Amino acid sequence: MAKLYFYYSAMNAGKSTMLLQAAYNYREQGMTAVIYKPKIDSRGPTGKVVSRIGLSAEALEFPADYDFYQAIQLCLKSAPIDCVLVDEAQFLSKSQVLQLTMICDHLDIPVLCYGIRTDFRGEPFEGSQYLLAWAESLIEVKTICKSGRKAIMNARNDSEGNRVLEGHQVDVGHHYESMSRREFDLPNVNVSKSSSDPD
Length: 199
Description:
Helices cover 27% and strands 22% of the residues. It has 199 residues and is an alpha/beta fold. α2 runs parallel beside α3 (94-107). The model is unreliable at 193-199 (pLDDT under 50).
């Protein structure tokens, strides 16, 4: 029975490297793995997933309105598919995560997604929220912050290395830093306080 997997971590933990290793393992067994990356991710060359250690592989770029289930059904008419791999899965929409569950449940193809859970304010990304809710397998990829503690948050810095606390949720680039929750200082970053929180 095919499963939906979500490999999650803070930034720079090696998720893309893990995805590329999984794709290599499938290819080595003579199997076909389809790799996806979001079109919004402008880092690196077009149509490729590239890891920080220099590994890369061809990838299909999906836009915000892409229908994964329909696309994979169409691909299956011409060739078998043994696995679907999705990089930067936090950028998926709720409906796209649902489509990925349908690929597992109705087409019996495993789907492996790799991404971060929260943005620079500690708020969850839509894709990650529903992957955490609907995936059978949740696998944490661990990394550490400069304090030596486990990093679970993603701070955003400007071009001069100063912390940024305002802006759009999506700002693709390499100006992020993995931090522990204590180092991140969540109460002072996240302004979504409940009425019961102290002033």
